[in-house]
Hints:
The structure holds two protein chains of two kinds.
Chain A: H1 13-27, E1 32-33, H2 34-43, H3 53-62, E2 66-71, E3 79-84, H4 86-118
Antiparallel strand pairs in A: 1-3, 2-3
Helix pairs in contact in A: 1-4
Chain B: H1 3-17, H2 23-40, H3 49-59, H4 62-70, H5 74-89, H6 98-112, H7 116-126, H8 133-159, H9 163-173, H10 176-191, H11 194-197
Helix pairs in contact in B: 1-2, 1-3, 1-4, 6-7, 6-10, 7-8, 7-10, 8-9, 8-10
Amino acid sequence: MPRMVLGDTRTTELSRGAIEHCVLALLRSRESYAFDLVRQLAASGLVTSEGTLYPLLSRLRRKGLVATIWRESTEGPPRRYYRITAKGHSALEAFTRQWIQFRDAVDGLIGEARTEATT
Amino acid sequence: VTGDQLVRDYLADLEEAATVLHRDLRDELVRDVREHITIALADADDDDEPFVRAVLDRLGTPDAIVGAAMDGDTQTSLRATERGRAWSRTAGLRPLTIEERAMLALTVGSIVLPFVGPVLGLWLASASSAWSLAQKRTAAAIVLVLLALPAVLVLPGIAQGELNWVVGSAGFLLPFVPASGLLAAAYLHLTSSFVVTVGRRV
């Protein structure tokens, strides 16, 4: 089977991990349905095409980091609501720690490089 | 080109691109995107073509979406695809979706298991996420009315002791039992096409 040419829509490991955890962060305080989540993430500028977030949500669900429930809707088919699971909470905590370390390290090196460039 | 047509073409392209995914993943993805479009267009004017175009642009191309589904767990999706093929090779072993099971109970079940079949079908249908609450309620109403009708027609006969009339009309009344399930199934089938669920709002 030929591998699809994905161009720049192909997310790197790093940004995919970050976006996944941003979804968990959005769900930390309240459950939400997919459309709202997708619009919020798109508005943040992290993703350019909203549709690519649906496979990501599906992946989070299969990993057990989020759970979904179907709610009947007065207009149209039922909607799927997402909420974070206990496993999702601990994954988010672990990621937050790693992310801060990683960001500080990168900031440090970029900062040093900048200082050297200006002096 | 109408907005309705744009949406239909887009979803057809997505289904086409998603054939590389395992059936469950593909069904879920197409349903999620369809739901997204339905909600995004819910407040749009009839046939506001530029608006529809903007909604689809924001979603990204079907290839990009399927690419995102393959990306990251390519191995999983490919393995899942293999598994899906193995299922279809050993024909009949592929698990049926809840809608397919409900349809079977409403059609075959109504004939093989009078009364039980259609009720089982309604119960299965109630768990479906593809059918709306209104559709489920209408299907239930069809089944209940057609099952209750023979009883309502026959009871006065029994009360008046006209048993000959009751036995004589059984041939006319009995088909109501399977018809309840068959009609409900036909209703669900006709209203669950994409044109009705999304097209209405476009």
